[in-house]
Amino acid sequence: MKKLFLYILLVTGLCAHAQFGTQVFSKDPIVNLENFDKQRVHWGYFLGFNSYDFKFDYINDPKVDIELKKSTGFNVGLVGNLRLFEYLDLRFEPGLYYTQRDLTFHNVEGTTADKLREVKSTYLHFPLLLKFSSKRTGNVRPYLVGGVSRSLNLSSNFNVKDDNMTGARFRMKKWTNYYEIGAGVDLYFEFFKFSPSIRGVFSLNDEIIRDNDPNSPYTGNIESMKTRGIFINFTFH
């Protein structure tokens, strides 16, 4: 799946690159899609990458922090854009986000398998964002974006009774709320608009489900665990 995803991005990038010099960044470019942003509503889709992290707060200072290993996941989704004013749009970007984070609990006695928890997450992500665009220059228009979002973790183990102590199951809450902030640029081509962007995502609530034993070496000393993430998306309209 990842190889197919990278192949799609590569082919799309090569096709777009053929138009970059003459239609977007040339000294006197032909103005493409001149009235595109005047539409009241328009749609698109995005492909991208993500890197999720956890921020841990502890009840007591641990001798050794929980070690976290991140990986690069992928994103895919749809974009709905509502024009509010000339420089302000409201966007809804529902998407599917896949990632994995590996946690190593060094304070746990036992084998490497006892210490390691692979946290695989598949999120349905629902952001509602405000897009603040600058004045368009030729075929380029930078923008800032920010807003709030909510996600459903399909791999949370929320309903599983076994925990880290009884079944080696790391459990998280199903729903999480976030705030998001980022930046991007709209590039106008002859037949479509291409918008690469980068966005930071920060959880507003504690996501961990603690083990049944309040003294569990896995969760007993965790005051809160909140997701942080970086999204890099390539949007096509």
Automatic annotation (TrEMBL):
Domain annotation Outer membrane protein beta-barrel: ranges: 39-208
Superkingdom of the source?
Bacteria
Q: Where is the signal peptide?
A: 1-18
Q: Which UniProt keywords apply?
A: Signal
The record, for Pfam families, names: OMP_b-brl_2 (PF13568)
Q: Does the keyword Signal apply?
A: yes
Q: Give a yes or no for keyword Signal in this entry.
A: yes
Q: Which InterPro entries match?
A: Beta-barrel_OMP_2 (IPR025665), OMP/PagP_B-barrel (IPR011250)
- For this entry, the protein name equals Porin family protein
Its taxonomic path starts at: Bacteria, Pseudomonadati, Bacteroidota, Flavobacteriia, Flavobacteriales
